[in-house]
Amino acid sequence: MAAIERRIRYESELDPSFAREIIAFSGSPSLMACIQCGTCSSACPLSLYMDYTPRRIIAMVREGFKQEVLSSRTIWLCASCYACTVECPKQIRITDVMYALKRYAIREGVHPPRFPIPVLARLFYNTVRRRGRLTESWTVLRLYLQTMPLRIPGMSSLGWKLLRRGRFPLRPEGIRDRQGLQRVLRVVERQEVTA
Amino acid sequence: MSYLYFPGCSLKGTGRAYEESLLAVFRALGIPLTELADWNCCGATAYMSIDEHQAFALAARNLALAESQGSPADGAVQLIAPCSACYLVLLKAQQCLAADIALCQEITIALKEEGHCYRGRVRIRHPLDVLVHDVGLSEIARHVRQPLRGLKIACYYGCQIVRPFALFDRPHDPSTMDDLVRILGAEPVSWPLKTHCCGGSLTGTIPEVGWRLNYLLLREAQRRGAHLIVTVCPLCQFNLEAYQDQIRQRYPDLAPMPVLYFTQLIGMAMGLPPRELGLQRLLIPVDGLMAALSKEGAHARA
């Protein structure tokens, strides 16, 4: 028999500072003005796959359901199409709130394990920091190896077709002034730490 | 007017045909495009998910390079960004830097470290905007050699060129590409999903979800009688074209549907050689379709 667990949270278990942090992180103070109309959820092409709809995420952020929000799949399913942001009657920048939640979740390391989206974000970040540009072919290959190795055989025919058409160049891309770019990014990083 | 051109990573990889056809079309129109020297990744979605300020610094470095390399017209250097993700991120960085003094200072200090300087004098443009509003439809019409008569087209704008910054077209029902397609002699079909999201990188990360979104787009285009889909973004083009085999395994009601860049279509109407437009790189070719149409046209004329 499954363990019987309490289905609701006590107020004392919530994190009252979470909303403030996300507002600062996303630069969208209008978060508190949300009227829970659900327009964002209906505009979202992915809400039917989400564990919490965008409307619920906003409500949960405001109330301090930090753990639930940060470990949700919702924030990773957001593809940044900005449909919600354009439709919101209170001008809440919901896409930017989702970005803020992604960054927060990565920083706290609470995203679902082996979930490909944060892995892709990391790969992307590391490659661009090192080389200044992304090489699509290598990024995709690494992503599949790290998160979906069993799917590689199913995708190999597509890979081969792209390779033959010159659309999967394996020569790594990069900028000339890599060191310069890295220094710029390090200065930004240092300022963020002190801020 | 002279334009700088920011290719972005995809136009050097899966979207090579976009770069080839874009350059070919602008060359044929007599407008030289100069590639921004030593450009770096725009800082798109995935980078933004890790560190926003660094993503803005990446974008700002490109904008600073544009200012130092370009010659300004009306006080701004014109920078063409064909990829929707690059276009959006560069615009977003520009607007955030203009609105947030502390952020702007932070990025300025970092850029100065390497002698870069960004003063806010870049105008970021999508090539669709440039072609329709700077070059003009009548000028493009003058270059049409082989009107694409009989061709029915679903114009796909995707999300990020009209959202959230709708600078040159309407966010809900954009029409610039439809107008352009008409000038080329083809017929745009009415297609309400024209700005519905293709899922971006979800096709690679959670295929079941990403493929379903693309299935819906393809099926609706097919229902509306489109012969092909035309896009303005390398990721949209890839998503709609590359996974059709996988999608068909799940949803067998789908027939193969060619997906072209809008610049390839313009080049075809201008009579440019197919190789210059990268048509040989398509996974679902258009030559059969074009041959059938021209035969039908000859039949109708006879």
Which features does this protein show?
A: 195 residues; mainly alpha; Fumarate Reductase Iron-sulfur Protein, Chain B, domain 2; globular; B: 302 residues; alpha/beta; Glutathione S-transferase Yfyf (Class Pi), Chain A, domain 2; Rossmann fold; four-stranded parallel β-sheet; 8 strands; 9% strand
Describe, in plain words, how this protein is organized in 3D.
The complex is a heterodimer of chains A (195) and B (302). Chain A folds into two domains: 98 residues, Fumarate Reductase Iron-sulfur Protein, Chain B, domain 2 (Orthogonal Bundle), CATH 1.10.1060.10; 79 residues, no CATH class. Chain A has eleven helices and no strands. Chain A starts with 17 loop residues before the first helix and ends with a helix. By secondary structure, chain B is α/β, with parallel strands linked by helices. In chain B, helix 3 packs across helix 5, helix 4 packs across helix 5 and helix 9 crosses helix 11. The longest helix of chain B is centred in the first third of the chain and has 18 residues. The chains are: A mainly alpha (195), B alpha/beta (302). Chains A and B meet through helix 6, helix 7, helix 8, helix 9 and helix 10 of A and helix 2, helix 3, helix 5, helix 8 and helix 9 of B.
Short description:
By secondary structure, chain A is mostly helical. Chain A is built from eleven helices and no strands.
Unreliable runs of chain A: none
Let me know the number of strands of chain A.
0
H/E order of the elements of chain A? HHHHHHHHHHH
The quaternary organization reads as: heterodimer
Reported by name, the CATH topology of the largest domain in chain A is Fumarate Reductase Iron-sulfur Protein, Chain B, domain 2
**What is the overall shape of chain A?**
globular
Q: Termini distance of chain B?
A: 44 Å
Estimate nothing, just give the exact number of structural domains of chain B. Answer: 2
